[in-house]
Structure formats: structure tokens, C-alpha cells
Amino acid sequence: MAERRPMGSLEADVLQELWSADGSLTANDVRAALDYELAYTTVNTILTRLATKGLVQRTREGRSYAYRAELGEDELTADRMHRELARARDRTAALSRFVDTLTAKELAALRRRVAPRSR
Fold it and tell me: What Cα–Cα distance (Å) separates residue 106 from each residue in 62, 97, 113, 114?
């Protein structure tokens, strides 16, 4: 029996392929770029779901569609972090916990980014 991937990992892998592409990709392009075998219908379903979620844009290309990421990886990550923070009852505590997990390098980058705003 094949090992199941974590929920959402296929979407993440497909998005990674779209982010690394120079332009739009078809479902067959994405399927060929992935490091493992997937049925065309599986890739097509994932791309359709990502389009429905507004994460990718699709355009008609002949008889099929071509897809490109709507947001960059950094934008999507920031959006997800912001949505999770908005769900927290105590945003300050959540932010504190998050900052406590940062490496020294990440904390220095955050300080550089925040410093101009606090003036």
C-alpha cells in the first residue's frame, strides 16, 4: 500500500512548482516537474482547487488551462500567518510565543524590518 502524504502536501508541492517556473504551466507540465508519479486527473484537480481558493490564476491555452501562482511564496506565508494571528484571542501572547521561536538571524531580520516603523 502506498504511503499517504500529509494533508495539503500535494497543494504545497504544486505551488512550489508554479513558484519556480518562469511562466505559466499546464497540468501536464506540473505533473512532469513533480518528483513522483501522479495521475493527470489528480494534478488537474489540485490546480482547480488552488484556482478556486484564489491561489493560482488560470488562463485558457488551447483545449486546456495554464496556471500561474497568484501570490508569491512569501506573500502566501505572510497572509496565512496574519489569518492565524487574527484568530487568536490574545494576539500579544501569540506574537510573543512566535518571536520566542525565532533564530537569532530571524530575530535580527525582524528587528531591521520593524525598526523604521517605530520611529
Answer: 45, 14, 11, 12
